[in-house]
From TrEMBL:
UniProt similarity note: In the C-terminal section; belongs to the transposase 35 family.
Protein name: Transposase
Lineage: Bacteria, Bacillati, Actinomycetota, Actinomycetes, Streptosporangiales
Residue ranges of the region described as Disordered: 215-243, 395-421
Cas12f1-like TNB domain mapped to chain residues: 310-376
Protein's organism: Nocardiopsis gilva YIM 90087
GO MF, any single term: DNA binding
Alphabetical list of NCBIfam families matching this protein: guided_TnpB (NF040570)
């Protein structure tokens, strides 16, 4: 099983400058190759038949360019080829015209050494180790934990003003085919008041940013908007802002990993709502001059959704499920927050607030997020019971006896979703 290990590097000034040069060259190769692909698509739309610059074609061109341009020889050839491979995968996944340019001020320098045979690692002491990377030589890093298995690749990235190396290792373990508790399941509702609520009644949340940090971020962003592009003062402000937001991002990632691991360890099936987070925080028909309808009204909700990290928590669950054999099931989120889990009555007024759910029909009162999580879990059990886990298919079998017809449960609005393991 492939596992990632992240460490903070301690570079010399020469190595720091060399890493920034590597990042700039990889950014130039990415933008040049992306422009080639876009131009080829435009020629094809005009009816001109030319060879499409795929990965193999661009690797050949890169080899020819390396013999003519000396600055390309600064970076290991495999690192540049890996940049083209990443671009090819991004274009296949999102489309050529939806892949972003890597701009100088918005992109964080990053490059990868894909051949683990060229990477050596030694431990220097209790807290320090060192890596030997191609053309960079030996670099020191904080030995926070010991990596397990053989190193397959190393990715170097600048985050929050620090250089980070991510080692991808093959530890030799295999994912279990059956969960230790195969009959257990849990439904999860992601909210804005509480980050994670489960059908067992557990509420998981954490303060990712203090009030003082939020005020400091506001002031830094205000200062940044008034500074001249390309100035040294603007670069210092961007560095301060990056360090501040990096601490918040690390806390959020730590919370998501620590929450996802016990949930997957205890449950064979984890049911989530199939949420399109990027679509939920997008304004409607927006342009540069007219951002869209309801932008100001949704701004606070959008910030809260992004601050809770809904999509990142889903990724953390999928990562933890690999080691426990847990199945991740996603169901349609429609009406899960308006449906009473006790009697099945559906009404928008059932949810009085973000925290209180009170059924207008039977008077059932419960935490609103927990009630929604129970509905999500019930929909997941219904999907799992009939073995119909594909997107868009209908539930062909009745849910368990607790939700049998006559109990008042109405599974109509809750449709089947997709699953992953």
């Amino acid at each position: 099983m492939l596992t990632g290990y992240r460490y903070r590097l301690t570079l010399t000034p020469e190595q720091d400058e060399q890493c920034r040069t590597y990042g700039d060259i990889c950014r130039a190769v990415w933008n040049t190759a992306l422009d080639q692909r876009r131009q080829a698509v435009k020629r094809w739309e005009r009816g001109q038949s030319n060879p499409f610059p795929g990965y193999a074609y661009q690797c050949g061109q890169l080899k020819e360019a390396t013999t003519e341009e000396e600055w390309l020889k600064t970076v290991p050839a495999q690192t540049l080829q890996q940049t083209l491979k990443d671009l090819d995968a991004a274009c296949a996944r999102h489309g050529t015209f939806k892949v972003h340019w890597r701009t100088k001020h918005r992109w964080k320098p990053s490059f990868r050494f894909p051949d683990g045979k060229n990477i050596q690692m030694e431990r220097l002491g209790r807290r320090w180790g060192r890596l030997k990377l191609p053309k960079l030589g030996w670099v020191r890093f904080r030995w926070s934990r010991a990596p397990r298995g053989a190193v397959r690749s190393a990715t170097v990235r600048c985050e929050s003003g620090h250089w980070i190396v991510s080692l991808l290792c093959e530890d030799g373990t295999a994912a279990p085919e059956v969960h230790a508790a195969p009959t257990t399941s849990v439904g999860i509702d992601r909210g804005v008041t509480v980050a994670v609520a489960t059908s067992d009644g557990d509420l998981f949340d954490r303060q990712f940013q203090t009030s003082k940090e939020a005020e400091r971020e506001r002031r830094l962003r205000q200062r940044l908007s008034r500074q001249r592009m390309g100035s040294a003062s603007r670069a210092r402000t961007r560095a301060q802002l990056s360090r501040l937001t990096g601490r918040v991002r690390d806390r959020r990632a730590d919370f998501q990993a620590q929450t996802a691991k016990p949930l997957c360890a205890k449950n064979a099936v984890v049911v989530l709502e199939a949420l399109n987070t990027s679509g939920m925080v997008r304004s409607v028909k927006g342009t540069v001059s007219a951002p869209g309808r309801g932008v100001r009204a949704k701004a606070g909700l959008n910030r809260t959704i992004l601050a809770k990290g809904w999509h990142a928590f889903e990724v953390a669950l999928a990562n933890a499920a690999r080691r426990t054999g847990t199945t991740i099931v996603e169901v349609d989120p429609a009406y899960t927050s308006q449906t009473c889990h006790g009697c099945g009555h559906v009404e928008p007024g059932n949810r009085e607030s973000q925290a209180v759910f009170r059924c207008k029909s039977c008077g059932h009162t419960e935490n609103a997020d927990v009630n929604a999580a129970k509905n999500v879990n019930a929909a997941g059990l219904a999907v799992s019971a009939c073995g119909d886990l594909a997107v868009g298919r209908s539930v062909k079998q009745e849910p368990p006896s607790r939700l049998a017809p006559g109990s008042g449960w109405n599974p109509g609005p809750l449709k089947a979703g997709r699953t992953s393991k």
